[in-house]
UniProtKB/TrEMBL annotation:
The keyword Membrane applies. It is found in: Cell membrane. The chain crosses the membrane at residues 51-70, 116-137, 149-172, 203-227, 261-284, 315-335. GO terms for biological process: transmembrane transport. Belongs to the binding-protein-dependent transport system permease family. Gene3D superfamilies: MetI-like (1.10.3720.10). This is Putative multiple-sugar transport system permease YteP. GO terms for cellular component: plasma membrane. Residues 112-332 form the ABC transmembrane type-1 domain.
Length: 346
């Protein structure tokens, strides 16, 4: 109990001058505390540990500034008749002629079709395989077995494309281009052998199988990490309702993986105009017979640069890839926000 002149510290107020010069005795004391310079800036409060995070991020920021944003100044080459003697800033201006060369070369339709078809197959197949592998690995109860299998399916991600091409040569052509493990298996069932390296038709599916083998385990690890973040209470509720493991995987796990899948799909759409140059060139090389279904923008640019040494045309094609990829990412973001706002990253 306080006296008539006492003040309750929990409700203490401090007088504050008003617009008329008078004081407002009902203003809380905390409102009269002076602002500490640098503490609040545009609604963001900086703490001491935030500076440590900035220092940790500094090497990555410098890396991208030097190797990602710095070279963007060289995009001017796409509009020049570039030659090494005059350099980037001394080469004569060519306008849009470098773009015209690509679009009027007669090969643009085939190259764009192959790039889109192959990347669409790669993206859908690898994401589907990643989800399926993650669901199967999540159902394994033994911790050691699950971790061992998880490591085993992740190993192909580190295998070099050159090694993959050697394996594929053994499977499809064998020693000296004769036979091969696949042809031997076909002969067992009285089916004729196939000259795989002279038949362009099956190669989109062959490359897709290789891509699934290489990236399926990688994506499964990402989806497994998302599965581990799902609260256990959700599955306990499913058990109480009498749901089977398959029903819980389909009705609970799959819907909760949508945000992760949406992000991976968005990233894939952004690079749908970029072919996997390392894998495709290591396997196909300069085999012109297979170009009808395997020649993508990146392999075409490499051959053009190696054959003609035309830096302007190759830079123009690279700029075209980047601009179209940016447009596709923005379109995908718009579709995602419209139809699946809960999984949108913006």
């Amino acid at each position: 109990m306080t006296g008539t002149t006492g003040r309750d510290p929990m409700t203490a107020t401090t007088a504050r001058p008003t617009a008329t010069g008078e004081t407002d005795p009902a203003t809380p004391a905390a409102a009269n505390r002076p602002m500490v310079p640098g503490r609040h800036r545009r609604g963001v409060q900086w703490r001491r540990k935030d500076y440590g995070l900035v220092i940790l991020a500094a090497p990555a920021i410098v890396f991208f500034l030097v190797f990602a944003y710095g070279p963007m100044a060289g995009l001017v080459v796409a509009f020049q008749d570039f030659n090494i003697k005059d350099g980037v800033f001394g080469s004569p201006w060519a306008g849009l002629s470098n773009f015209e060369f690509f679009f009027t070369s007669g090969q643009m339709a085939r190259i764009l079709r192959n790039t889109l078809v192959l990347n669409a197959l790669f993206l859908t197949a690898t994401l589907g395989a990643g989800v399926l592998l993650a669901l199967m690995l999540n159902e394994i109860r033994g911790t050691l077995l699950r971790r061992g299998l998880q490591s085993a399916v992740f190993i192909p991600y580190f295998v070099s494309p050159i090694v993959i091409s050697i394996f594929l040569q053994a499977f499809l052509a064998g020693v000296g281009g004769r036979g091969g493990i696949v042809n031997d298996a076909l002969n067992v069932f009285a089916l004729p052998s196939v000259s795989w390296y002279t038949e362009p038709g099956p190669w989109p599916w062959i490359l897709t199988i290789v891509k699934v083998w290489q990236l399926g385990g990688y994506f499964s690890v990402i989806f497994l990490a998302a599965i581990t973040s799902i609260p256990e209470e959700v599955y306990e509720a499913g058990v109480i309702d009498g749901a089977s493991r398959a029903q819980m995987a389909w009705r609970i796990t799959m819907p909760l993986l949508k945000p992760t899948g949406a992000v991976l799909l968005l990233l894939g759409v952004g690079r749908i105009f970029y072919g996997d140059f390392g894998l495709i060139y290591a396997i196909v090389g300069d085999n012109g017979i297979l170009f009808a279904t395997t020649d993508v923008i990146d392999t075409y640019v490499f051959r053009a640069l190696r054959t003609y040494g035309d830096f302007g045309t190759t830079a123009a094609i690279g700029l075209f890839q980047s601009v179209v990829g940016f447009v596709l990412v923005m379109i995908a973001l718009g579709v995602q926000r419209r139809y699946s706002k809960e999984s949108s990253i913006l």
